[in-house]
Design goal:
2 domains, 332 residues, seven-stranded mixed beta sheet, 14% strand, globular, single chain, alpha/beta
Length: 332
C-alpha cells in the first residue's frame, strides 16, 4: 500500500543495519515490538530473524493487516480456493460501501466505481458469513480480509489517502477489482497482535527491542484511512459530510500540545532494553526535544538518512522532494 510514513524503503537497508549495529547481528533470541505498526512493514522485515514479534496499532484496518502478515505463520489450507471464490461472487447492490461510497449508491460520493463497490460488499459479506458459519478459521478470516482491504485500496478513486475522493474516476480506479492474496512469510514464531493505544499497551508488555514510528504531524490516520476501517469493521453507521467520514480516534501524538508528554510517558513505561524512534525533520517534536526526553532514561544516540517524501498530492510544488529521517536510539 502507498502509505503515509511507510518505512518500506528504510527497511531495505538503513533500519535493519542500524538496529543490528546496536543490538548485535544475531537477533534470534530477542522480542521485537512494533507498537505503531501501520501496514506492518517493519514487523514483516524482522519476522523471521527474531524470537517473537509484538505488533500493535490503534486503527482496526492495521490490526487486520498485521493479524495476517505477522500473526499468520503457518500455511493455511485452501486459501487460494477462497480467493477464487471471492473473485467469482455475484455483485450486490444492497451493501454498505456501494450505498454510501459509490456514485450509483448515493449520487455523490465516488470512492469506488459502482461495480467495484458492489464487489467489495459481496466479498465482505461473504467473508463474514463464512466466519459466522465456521467454514473458515480465524487465520483464514484475517488472510481474506487483508487481501480484500489491500486489493480494494488499489482501485480506490483517491489521491492515495481517503480524506477526499476525486471528481473524476482516475485510470487505476477504472480497473475491475480483483482480489489478490495477501501472502505472508511462514515462520516458527508465535507472535502477538494488538489493537490498542500504544501508551496503554506498553504497560502490559516487555521485550528487547522497541521500535517507535508514531504520527509525525497533525494528520490523523483515522481520518485519512477511514474507509479502510469501514471495510474492515463493516458495521452500520451514519457517514458524515461530503466525504462520508466516520467517528475516529484522535491521537495525542498528532497535537503539539500533548505529543511531548505522551512520548515521554511511553519511554518511561517501556520495559525494553533498546528503543528506536523513527521521526523526521518536519515532525511536531524537534530533535532537541526528543534527545532531552530519551537522554533521561539511558544512553542516547542518533542516526539520520535522506528519505523520499510521500506525496498524496503530487501536484504540489511548494514542498521538498525529500526529508531527513532521524533514527533516535536509546539503550535503557
Amino acid at each position: 500500500m502507498n502509505y503515509i510514513g511507510s518505512k518500506y524503503k528504510l527497511c531495505q537497508d538503513f533500519l535493519p543495519s542500524a538496529i543490528k549495529s546496536v543490538c548485535g547481528e544475531n537477533l534470534s533470541q530477542m522480542i521485537f515490538c512494533d507498537i505503531f505498526a501501520g501496514t506492518g512493514i517493519v514487523g514483516r522485515t524482522f519476522k523471521t530473524s527474531v524470537k517473537e514479534i509484538i505488533s500493535n496499532d490503534i486503527e482496526y484496518y492495521s490490526y487486520v493487516l498485521n493479524r495476517n502478515y505477522i500473526g499468520n505463520c503457518e500455511e493455511i489450507e485452501d486459501k487460494e480456493h477462497y480467493i477464487e471464490e471471492l473473485n467469482s461472487l455475484p455483485l450486490t447492490d444492497t451493501g454498505f460501501i456501494y450505498k454510501n461510497y459509490c456514485k450509483g449508491g448515493n449520487g455523490e460520493r465516488q470512492y469506488f466505481t459502482d461495480k467495484n463497490g458492489m464487489r467489495i460488499d459481496a466479498c465482505r459479506i461473504s467473508i463474514e458469513e463464512w466466519k459466522r458459519e465456521k467454514r473458515i478459521s480465524d487465520d483464514l478470516y484475517y488472510f481474506l480480509l487483508a487481501s480484500l482491504i489491500e486489493s480494494a485500496d488499489k482501485v480506490a478513486n483517491t489521491a492515495s489517502v481517503y480524506g477526499a475522493y476525486l471528481k473524476k474516476i482516475k485510470k487505476t480506479a477504472q480497473k475491475d477489482l480483483v482480489i489478490h492474496p495477501a501472502d505472508y512469510v511462514l515462520c516458527k514464531n508465535r507472535n502477538s497482535i494488538f489493537n490498542e493505544n500504544a501508551n496503554t499497551l506498553i504497560n502490559k508488555i516487555e521485550g528487547d527491542i522497541l521500535y517507535l514510528d508514531p504520527p509525525y504531524n497533525s494528520r490523523q490516520y483515522g481520518a485519512n484511512y477511514h474507509l479502510l476501517n469501514t471495510i474492515a469493521e463493516y458495521k452500520d453507521f451514519n457517514p458524515q459530510g461530503k466525504t462520508g467520514l466516520r467517528k475516529y480516534l484522535r491521537s495525542k501524538y498528532c497535537s503539539s500540545g500533548t505529543v511531548v508528554s505522551e512520548f515521554e510517558q511511553l519511554i518511561k513505561d517501556a520495559r525494553f532494553k533498546y528503543i528506536f524512534l523513527s521521526y523526521n525533520n518536519e515532525g511536531l517534536m524537534s530533535v532537541q526535544q526528543i534527545k532531552s526526553v530519551m537522554s533521561k532514561y539511558g544512553h542516547y544516540d542518533i542516526l539520520q538518512t535522506d528519505y523520499h517524501r510521500f506525496k498524496a498530492d503530487s501536484n504540489r510544488t511548494n514542498k521538498a522532494d525529500s526529508t531527513i529521517e532521524y533514527l533516535h536510539i536509546l539503550e535503557k
